[in-house]
From TrEMBL:
This is ABC transporter related. InterPro entries: AAA+_ATPase (IPR003593), ABC_transporter-like_ATP-bd (IPR003439), ABC_transporter-like_CS (IPR017871), P-loop_NTPase (IPR027417). It comes from Salinispora tropica (strain ATCC BAA-916 / DSM 44818 / JCM 13857 / NBRC 105044 / CNB-440). Pfam families: ABC_tran. Residues 5-228 form the ABC transporter domain.
């Protein structure tokens, strides 16, 4: 399987501090890959590097065969930021249609994206009047609307109820089955089990790049949260050994 993303030795400093310490990872095409890690571990910084909006100190990031941020990638990569980036004084439908037009897409695609995120009933509502969870789904609709080859989603299910979260994950898998690559960040470990592959990050270092089944097998525990904790403990004892040598 071809890799949609190849990250080699990626080092990023922010605010004079190193936040990514030489990340090596790949994301295979047509998969749902989860980027999991505690708050502040560097998930958003890594996603920013992938979409080409983060100054990097060292290393390379190759996306769909091009350097991250290359102009050829503009329409091929969709990015959902954590803060909803849509117009508060337009309706959900107007936002989706606007972003569709920017991508050279029609109103039918825009309306389908609104339906896909469960907002059909609120399509005519001004974004300013939506709940927080609805607003982030409206923003997600605008990221989906161009049907990009790679979707980079920063915590797309935050603030959603369990039914909607399940529906969104089903939608993500349907897109992957149709060939889209999805990289989805989350700090909710129960979402890890929904991913085809996992990148587990802690304090700017990758501690696993594997399938959920392989993570379970390597740690000998079924619960992925517990498995993650074990990997952290192992990586910390390994780091302690290296630092004293
Ligand atoms: N603009 C900035 N200037 C300086 N440091 C920053 C900046 N943005 C983030 N950082 C720092 O970089 C580190 C990684 O932050 P990042 O936002 O990538 O983490 P995260 O894993 O996405 O966290 P969360 O799950 O809370 O969103 C943190 O220590 C954070 O304080």
């Amino acid at each position: 399987m071809q890799d949609a993303i190849v990250i080699r030795d990626l080092v990023v400093d922010r605010g004079g501090r190193r936040v990514l310490h030489g990340i090596d990872a790949t994301v295979p095409s047509g998969t749902v890959t989860g980027l999991l890690g505690p708050s502040g571990s560097g998930k958003t910084t890594l996603l920013r590097a992938l979409v080409g909006v983060q100054v990097v100190t060292a290393g390379t990031v190759t996306v769909l065969g091009h350097p991250a941020g290359a102009p050829q990638l503009r329409r091929r990569v969709g990015y959902l930021t954590q803060a909803p980036s849509i117009y508060a004084d337009l309706t959900v439908q107007e936002n989706a249609r606007y972003f569709a037009a920017l991508q050279g897409r029609g109103t039918a695609e825009a309306d389908r994206a609104v339906t896909d995120v469960g907002l059909r009933a609120a399509a005519g509502q001004l974004v300013a009047t939506l709940s927080g969870g609805q607003r982030s789904r409206a923003s997600l609709a605008c990221a989906l609307v161009g049907d990009p080859e790679l979707l980079v989603l920063d915590e797309p299910t935050v603030g959603q109820d369990p039914v909607l979260r399940a529906e969104l994950w089903a939608r993500f898998h349907a897109m992957a089955a149709a060939g889209t690559t999805l990289l989805i960040s989350s700090h909710v470990m129960d979402e890890a089990a929904r991913c085809d592959r996992l990148l587990l990050i802690r304090e700017g270092r990758l501690i696993a790049d594997d399938t959920p089944a392989a993570v379970r097998a390597a740690t000998g525990v079924d619960d992925l949260e517990e498995a993650f904790l074990r990997m952290i403990q192992e990586s910390e004892s390994g780091t302690a050994g290296r630092e004293t040598s």
